[in-house]
Amino acid sequence: MSTNRRNWFIVTVVILGLTGVISVAQAERQEFENIWCGAITYNVMQFSKEISAMSNDAKGILRSTHENKIFDNWTTQSINVIKGQDGKWFWNGFGKRLAPDGDFIIAEISGSSEGGGTIRFIYGTGKWKGIKGEAKVKRLTTGKPITQGTDQWCEEHKGWFELPK
Q1: Bridge partners (DSSP) listed for residue 136
Q2: What distance in Å separates the CA atoms of residue 159 and residue 87, rounded to the nearest whole number?
Q3: 16, part of any domain
Q4: 76-79: long-range contacts at Cβ-Cβ below 8 A with a sequence spacing of 24 or more?
Q5: Is 145 a domain residue?
Q6: pLDDT tens, 33-71?
Q7: Alpha-helical segments (H) within the chain
């Protein structure tokens, strides 16, 4: 075999080998659907028709509505900063999902009263290490606040995640 041909052969084998390694290393995407219900406590700095500024601390539990039961019976906490202006609400914050075995996931949360919310997974421990994913949030029901400065509601989380292999 000529040197030129041998070099092309080696390059082809290396490219095919790398392609195989890359495809094996790709993460598998999994879908999930949950219902979250919880209680929210507000820390209000300003509340008026013109402008509202506050934070909240929400704690709750997830129940899976998907056959794969991903995130079933996980507990949650989120802390958000909220702005209300001209009848519209906007929020940003962080959430933690805690598995029954103690592993957890940290997420960034954002949303608005007009567009709903988004949860983006940014960190995980144990089997959730390296998690990436996202869920859309839709409010399902809101109850009458049991005490002043609180809310209780349920919402739907539909999304996907990937774990590195």
Answers
A1: 118, 158
A2: 28
A3: no
A4: 76/36, 76/38, 78/109, 79/55
A5: yes
A6: 999 999 999 999 999 999 999 999 999 999 999 999 999
A7: 3-25
Question: To which H or E segment does residue 41 belong?
Answer: strand 28-46
Mention every residue, 6+ apart, whose C-beta is less than 8 A from residue 37: 60, 61, 63, 152, 153, 154, 155
Within-domain flag for 75: yes
Domains in the chain: how many in total?
1
pTM over 0.70: yes
Looking up residue 138, the CATH number of its domain turns out to be 2.40.350
Is residue 21 included in any domain, yes or no?
A: no
Q: Helix (H, G, I), strand (E, B), or coil: what is residue 93?
A: strand
* 8 A C-beta contact, residue 121 and residue 134: yes
Q: Are 121 and 29 in contact (CB under 8 A)?
A: no
| Domain hosting residue 68, numbered range | 29-163
Average pLDDT, the chain: 89
Cα–Cα distance for residue pair 96/137, rounded to 1 Å: 15
1-32 residue pLDDT tens: 565 555 555 555 445 454 444 444 567 899 99
